[in-house]
Amino acid sequence: MNSESHALTIDNLHKSFGDLEVLNGTCMCADKGDVISILGSSGSGKSTLLRCINLLEIPQQGDVYINDELIKMKGEGSKRKAADQRQVERIRSRLSMVFQSFNLWTHMTVLENIMEGPVQVLNVQKDDAKERAMAYLEKVGLADKYACYPSQLSGGQMQRVAIARALAMEPDILLFDEPTSALDPELVNEVLQVIELLAAEGRTMLIVTHEMEFARQVSSEIIFLNEGVIEISGSPEEVFNNKSSEKFSNFFAQGRTTQ
Amino acid sequence: MNLQIVMEYTPEILAGVVVTMKLVVVTMVLGLLLAVPLALCRNAKSKWLSIPAYAYIYFFRGTPLLVQLFIIYYGFSQFESIRQSFLWTFLSESYWCSILAFTLNTAAYTAEILRGAIKSVPQGQIEAALSVGMSPIKLYTRIISPQAALIALPGYCNESVLMMKGTSLASTVALLEITGITRNLIAETFMPLELFFLAGVIYMIISTIMIGGFKLLEASLSRFRVEI
User: Fold this and answer.
1) Residues of chain B that touch chain A, judged by Cβ-Cβ distance less than 8 Å
2) Residue A46 CA, distance from chain mean position
3) Residue from A114, A120, A136 to probe the interface with B (highest B Cβ count within 10 Å)
4) pLDDT tens digits for A50-72?
5) Could you please report the per-residue DSSP string of B64-116?
6) Which helix (H) or strand (E) holds B59?
């Protein structure tokens, strides 16, 4: 890899589940402030790629660098694992993930959910964490819900709380794993608006999504994954006007008809 | 049925209630303390932890409690080395033999309940914790334990009530708890119907109180299960 400084570098990532090869030598970089949308049909490896970055999945081969720091691995193939648990925990605390199914901790209130990471992992004082949590709740427009439990919120509200929880870690990179796929259509927009706001603030983000129009608007770069390799990448204009890839044209056309 | 007999002997049987309650409380505390590491070992990836834990559970679930109690009470005393050791101060007493048997037995069942509860905490809850960089210890104490405890509670309540009733077996090693005292009284009075009936009612009252306690605990732990 080149010696330039990147927020994220992924080098030659391979991941398979049994016989099914999901990532097949994927490479990419992200710089500070980049908003990269990852598109691709189901099973193309988008989510797996994202989950390999914070080691929720262990790639069988290949390296991930966060702020040019290599995540150290040991072992081979299916026995491969992180070499340094402390390093993994530290790096994970610099990356925040927003999940498709929100994954708010059900036994905690909204406020407790947002304070949990800063207090337990970053050792922020409780008062400071609370102040920080309320500020981010305000940002996602849910300050009045701070005392609710997740079961009392709608899907869109839960996802906005999950975004506030991710922001409260003040991460270097935000990872969005299909943040609107589990939402009712009328709730998608409130979540997309929050993500747009974050993009405008210059935050570094990777977004796995099926929302083509949204991706075109917010992204600085778009990646189209097909069978575990990056088929096309570039600025939204380049990718959406690219007619050379039949796969992407098909995918794009299908996206159109279903929307 | 002679109700007067029942009234007359109630105070004597109540003395046995204290012994039974002592057995239950000590066994529940020790059993839970033993069950937690057992459940964690049972769930561990390492075979060196999971197989011994499984073997332990397999043995205590597969053999009758009465047999386990007899092995401890009658069996251990055959070993000269045990009779010479400090353990004998405990193992020569039917009270401690009963505690030991009930604890080892309930720990096996409770470990299985906890193991299942830990396994049924949704993967997404765990991934959310991992993704913010929680250590395994924080993950267990902050996220998994509170959720697993609630899942385990109904099964654990059931096991505790079964164990409470199981303490009546201590009467077979000459411990004077509810059943032991009742049997002695029957030997004096030849009134098995009345006195066993009285003992049964007392067991039923204790189990009702226990179930009520678990219900309260469950309600207070599940505050978050509110709907709009």
Assistant:
1) 124-125, 127-135, 138, 142-143, 146-147, 150, 223-228
2) 10
3) A120
4) 999 999 999 999 999 999 999 99
5) -HHHHHHIIIIIGGG-HHHHHSTTHHHHTSHHHHHHHHHHHHHHHHHHHHHHH
6) helix B47-62
The separation between the first and the last C-alpha atoms of chain A, rounded to the nearest angstrom, is: 39
Q: Which of residues 183-222 of A touch B (CB under 8 A)?
A: none
ipTM over 0.85? The verdict is yes
Instruction: Count interface pairs A-B at CB distance under 8 A.
Output: 74
Total number of domains in chain B: 1
CATH classification at residue B55 = 1.10.3720.10
Amino acid present at B52: P
Q: How far is CA A222 from CA A47, A178, A241, A257, in A?
A: 15, 15, 12, 20
- Residue B17 lies in domain: 3-224
Contacts of A105 in chain B (CB under 8 A): 125, 128-129, 143
Name the pTM for this structure.
0.88
As given in the structure block, the two tokens for residue A224 are 């189209």
Q: B125, A106: Cβ pair inside 8 Å?
A: yes
SS3 B180: helix
Instruction: Using a CB–CB cutoff of 8 Å, tell me whether A24 touches chain B.
Output: no
Per-residue pLDDT tens digits for A142-164: 999 999 999 999 999 999 999 99
